[in-house]
């Protein structure tokens, strides 16, 4: 809570401001997340994506990022540590151009704790790409300004609409800046989306974050075996690049949306947004979309399991909703128990109780 | 691509070892990657770390499932974890122990490896001698270099100097060199024996 | 001779005009030399909060905030930035698109004002501005309950911020709910005078000036809107320190207290004179000065003009009255108020 609040004060007083958080820390500062975007403060925040409890879990998935998908921040995802370097440079430029906070999502542990080779851009080039921060309005004793007034029903709709409009503007600016970055630094770190072998692909994965790296490795293998598979990687999740997505997917027969979080009681979040986008797009007909949920709470995502998904898809056996590597026996046992004994209790602990483990000292 | 999996216990420098390996490979102009088996483990709990070394950019992010090199920093893990899971038997096996494969009860598995691909060395003893601490990681890095030729000692030395202050780096470099020499001597003796 | 009398005498020795009513409050500011008058006594006062805001009649917080910030403006040469917690002060000063503030001012959330102010302070430091000072302000709810963690963090890090809490003993903005600064026995909409223990429970709540002192920050003080000289002197003193400082100003609330708007200043004075509102200063965790009670009054005199305490004065609740009396005595002992 204090972390992002500190940034709100700092940014409002005119300093270029950065912070980082993850998981429960993000939820603890939830109020301030909405507040920072509502105030239009160009804060850049790294989110080291992690799961949200209970049960408490410190490992990687995208539940934290998805919990703030409607908070008004620009949300970018990176696939690799190199992209993390490049995209953070662009994030400040984007934030300051739009006067909106930008969240750079990088997978917790998988990227945040990896040691790997990256090219660090030259300071001079960075300064050229990203000039000094000069806010239009700030807290300044030379021209006193009140920020954060209470806005009533007469103007609230307009303020919210303009926030939406700004995000839509970002769709153009993100592409422009990515191009500018590529020209200046000689490295393409992707604009709104990044595609890999999608031109002629029958099956295309849609995914965000570090799993794209593993998928690339898999697709290199599969291509040499004659599979027609590609990847569409979303670098921008908010704003949602519906047109850019549909342009890539328009001729694809089968789309597999792989995501590391889901809306309990609804299903894949990214999958349903892809559904929505493709349905609005006139050129797309008869596209099969499957939602694959995996990597929850740090569950290892193996090439082996992803390969199985592709094989199922190729044989037309892939369900519309799949939980990859779900441990069936545990789930079935718990569901069976619930059929004849509907009692309350925390899920994780209910499973333990069935296994005869209640506490260190007692078993029932 | 050469893939390494290191098993040990919290506090033995398992994560540092994988990090030093990837930095050393980078020093030699290769692509490399390392990461731990992210846990909230405390001192003494079983931990794993992974490293990959390649001439090409590495995109894969899954943990090392089929290691070309398996490094066991603590032989008591044989009872606790299936350390051999997925290990390539045409790869290498590097174990910290002063016992033999028979005493360790892994003679069946180790016999599947090619000649001179299994190496047992008393890394903890060497560590105590050189760094005055039972941290076998840097000794094993030297042994790794001798066994696999994937990195050279000067690169490991640079990696160690980059991570630690001189006071800690110096004895650790000595330990690395000791590990390297131990393996080289062993292999030489074996070749001589076979020659004779 | 009390300290007030002593300081009045000291002032009078430097006066060309003689006091004709020394020892009373009616002498006012106008008879003092200009440099000894309060900021509020001058026509040129800076009016940090301008007229036209939407506070209730007799609002103690509107007065307290203006008194404190005008003083801070004078001390710093108008170089202050204020951050504000959600609450009455925020709502009545900034009904969009209007604002009553003549200083740079930021409202973020209910519970984070201490951190926002710390961020502003850090921003100024990063930009090499050593002149501009930062003030955080909130009501007792935003301070003692919702913003407590952020405030403790501010004290812990000793960020260069003066935090002012306008204490009216409850969430008056949202309909007079109890806060952890609501005095024992007081009626609020969540502690109604019903049942065996009418009003807010005794032995609950927290006293933030004491908690601030426990953090051993450079300066902690309590003040009251009825004593301008004392209040302004404390703001001035607070601004002479760098680091985290805490000032709690007692501000009567006619709505929440059930008192006459015209009685705000008088009630504030009676709170102090009854011993229920101790005025003191502390530096680095140690008590350094207490403002002595001039004419001690019985607590019931203070309670009887507030409807929130009406039930306490009924014969059936004599125990409650006795408890309140004990609290006043404890304050008098603890802070050497006599």
**Spatial strand sequence of the major β-sheet of chain A:** 7-9-8-11-12-13
Global geometry of chain A: globular
> What is the name of the CATH topology of the largest domain in chain C?
Rossmann fold
Radius of gyration of chain C: 19 Å
Q: Provide the residue-averaged pLDDT of chain C.
A: 92
What's the number of helices of chain C? 12
> Level of helix content of chain C?
25-40%
Main beta sheet of chain C: 8 strands, mixed
Number of domains of chain A: 3
The CATH topology of the largest domain in chain A: Rossmann fold
Give the SSE order of chain C as H and E letters: HHEHEHEHHEHEHEHHEEHH
Enumerate the strands of the largest sheet of chain C in spatial order, edge to edge or round the barrel.
2-1-3-4-6-5-7-8
Low-confidence stretches of chain A: none
Poorly predicted residue ranges of chain C = none
- Could you give the count of β-strands of chain C? 8
- CATH homologous superfamily heading of the largest domain in chain C: Thiamin diphosphate (ThDP)-binding fold, Pyr/PP domains
> Outline of chain C, from the CA principal axes?
globular
Give helix and strand order of chain A, one letter per element, not per position. HEHHEHEHEEHEHEEHEEHEHEHEHH
CATH class of the largest domain in chain C: Alpha Beta
Distance between the termini of chain A: 42 Å
The N- and C-terminal alpha carbons of chain C lie at a distance of 11 Å
What's the topology here?
The complex is a heterotrimer of chains A (364), B (196) and C (338).
Chain A (H helix, E strand, L loop, with lengths): L1 H11 L5 E4 L1 H6 L1 H9 L5 E6 L13 H5 L6 E4 L3 H18 L3 E6 L7 E2 L6 H7 L16 E2 L8 H30 L7 E4 L6 E5 L3 H14 L4 E6 L1 E3 L3 H8 L4 E6 L9 H12 L7 E6 L9 H12 L6 E3 L4 H13 L6 H8 L10
Chain B lengths: L1 E8 L4 H14 L3 E6 L9 E9 L14 E4 L19 E5 L4 H4 L2 H4 L7 E4 L1 H9 L5 H12 L4 H11 L2 H30 L1
Parallel strand pairs in B: 1-4, 4-5, 5-6
Antiparallel strand pairs in B: 1-3, 2-3
Chain C lengths: L2 H11 L46 H17 L3 E5 L3 H6 L11 E3 L5 H14 L6 E7 H7 L1 H10 L4 E6 L40 H7 L4 E6 L3 H12 L5 E6 L3 H4 L6 H10 L6 E4 L2 E5 L8 H5 L14 H17 L4
Parallel strand pairs in C: 1-2, 1-3, 3-4, 4-6, 5-6
Antiparallel strand pairs in C: 5-7, 7-8
Helix pairs in contact in C: 2-8, 4-6
């Amino acid at each position: 809570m204090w972390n992002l609040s500190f940034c709100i004060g700092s940014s409002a007083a005119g300093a270029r401001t950065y912070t980082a958080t993850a998981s429960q820390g993000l939820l603890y500062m939830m109020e301030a997340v909405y507040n920072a975007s509502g105030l239009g403060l160009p804060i850049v925040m790294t989110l080291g994506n992690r799961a949200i409890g209970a049960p408490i879990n410190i490992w990687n998935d995208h539940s934290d990022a998805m919990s703030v998908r409607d908070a008004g921040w620009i949300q970018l995802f990176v696939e690799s540590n190199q992209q993390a370097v490049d995209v953070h440079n662009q994030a400040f430029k984007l934030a300051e151009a739009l006067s909106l906070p930008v969240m750079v999502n990088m997978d917790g542990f998988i990227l945040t704790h990896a040691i790997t080779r990256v090219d660090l851009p030259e300071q001079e080039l960075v300064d050229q790409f990203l000039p000094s921060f000069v806010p239009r309005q700030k807290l300044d004793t030379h021209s006193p300004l009140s920020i954060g007034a209470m806005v009533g029903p007469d103007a609230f709709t307009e303020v919210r609409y303009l926030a939406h409009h700004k995000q839509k503007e970002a769709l153009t600016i993100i592409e422009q800046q990515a191009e500018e970055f590529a020209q200046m630094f000689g490295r393409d770190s992707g604009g709104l989306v990044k595609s890999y072998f999608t031109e002629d692909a029958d099956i295309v994965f849609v995914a965000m974050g570090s799993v794209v790296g593993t998928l690339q490795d898999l697709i290199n293998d599969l291509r040499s075996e004659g599979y027609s598979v590609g990847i569409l990687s979303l670098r921008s999740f908010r704003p949602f690049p519906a047109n850019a997505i549909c342009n890539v997917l328009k001729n694809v027969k089968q789309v597999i949306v792989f995501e590391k979080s889901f809306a309990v009681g609804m299903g894949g979040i990214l999958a349903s947004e892809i559904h929505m986008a493709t349905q609005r797009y006139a050129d797309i007909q008869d596209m099969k979309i499957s939602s694959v949920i995996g990597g929850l709470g740090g569950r290892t995502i193996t090439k082996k399991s992803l390969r199985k998904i592709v094989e199922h898809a190729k044989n037309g056996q892939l369900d519309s909703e799949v939980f990859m590597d779900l441990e069936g026996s545990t789930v079935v046992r718990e569901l069976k128990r619930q059929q004849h004994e509907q009692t309350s209790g925390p899920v994780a602990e209910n499973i333990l109780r069935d296994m005869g483990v209640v506490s260190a000292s007692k078993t029932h | 691509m050469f893939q390494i999996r290191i098993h040990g216990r919290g506090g033995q420098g398992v994560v540092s070892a994988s990090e030093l390996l990837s930095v050393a490979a980078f020093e030699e102009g290769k692509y490399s990657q390392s990461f731990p088996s992210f846990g909230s483990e405390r001192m003494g709990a079983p931990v794993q770390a992974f490293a990959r070394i390649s001439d090409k950019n590495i995109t894969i992010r899954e943990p090392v499932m089929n290691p070309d090199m398996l490094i066991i920093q603590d032989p008591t893990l044989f009872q606790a974890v299936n350390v051999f899971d997925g290990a390539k038997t045409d790869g290498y096996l590097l174990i910290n122990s002063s016992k033999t494969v028979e005493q360790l009860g892994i003679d069946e598995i180790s016999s599947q490896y090619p000649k001179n691909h299994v190496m047992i060395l008393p890394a903890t003893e060497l560590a105590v001698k050189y760094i005055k601490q039972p941290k076998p990681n840097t000794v094993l890095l030297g042994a790794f270099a001798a066994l696999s030729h994937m990195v050279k000692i000067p690169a490991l030395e640079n990696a160690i100097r980059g991570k630690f202050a001189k006071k800690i780096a110096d004895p650790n470099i000595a330990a690395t060199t000791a590990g390297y020499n131990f393996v080289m001597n062993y292999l030489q003796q074996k070749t001589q024996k076979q020659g004779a | 001779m009390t300290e007030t009398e002593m300081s009045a005498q000291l002032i009078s020795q430097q006066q060309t005009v003689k006091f004709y009513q020394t020892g009373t409050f009616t002498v006012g500011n106008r008879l003092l030399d200009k440099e000894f008058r309060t900021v509020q006594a001058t026509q040129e006062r800076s009016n940090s909060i301008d007229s036209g805001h939407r506070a209730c009649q007799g609002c103690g917080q509107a007065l307290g905030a203006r008194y404190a910030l005008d003083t801070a403006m004078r001390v710093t040469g108008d170089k202050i930035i204020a951050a504000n917690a959600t609450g009455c002060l925020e709502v009545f000063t900034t009904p969009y698109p209007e604002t009553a503030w003549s200083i740079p001012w930021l409202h973020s959330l209910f519970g984070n004002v201490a951190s926002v102010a710390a961020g502003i302070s850090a921003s100024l430091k990063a930009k090499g501005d050593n002149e501009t000072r930062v003030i955080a302000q909130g009501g007792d709810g935003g301070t003692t309950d919702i913003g407590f963690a952020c405030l403790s963090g501010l004290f812990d890090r000793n960020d260069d911020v003066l935090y002012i809490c306008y204490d009216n003993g409850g969430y008056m903005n949202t309909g007079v709910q109890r806060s952890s600064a609501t005095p024992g026995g007081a009626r609020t909409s969540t502690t109604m005078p019903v049942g065996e223990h009418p009003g807010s429970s005794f032995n609950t709540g927290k006293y933030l000036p004491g908690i601030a002192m426990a953090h051993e920050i450079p300066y902690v003080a309590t003040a009251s809107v009825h004593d301008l000289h004392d209040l302004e002197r404390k703001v001035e003193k607070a601004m002479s320190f760098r680091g985290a400082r805490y000032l709690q100003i007692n501000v009567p609330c006619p709505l929440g207290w059930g008192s006459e708007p015209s009685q705000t200043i008088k009630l504030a004075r009676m709170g102090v004179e009854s011993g229920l509102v101790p005025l003191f200063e502390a530096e680095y965790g140690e008590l350094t000065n207490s403002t002595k009670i001039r004419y001690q009054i019985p607590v019931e005199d203070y309670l009887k003009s507030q409807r929130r305490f009406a039930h306490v004065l009924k014969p059936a609740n004599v125990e409650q009255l006795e408890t309140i009396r004990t609290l006043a005595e404890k304050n008098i002992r603890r802070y050497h108020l006599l």
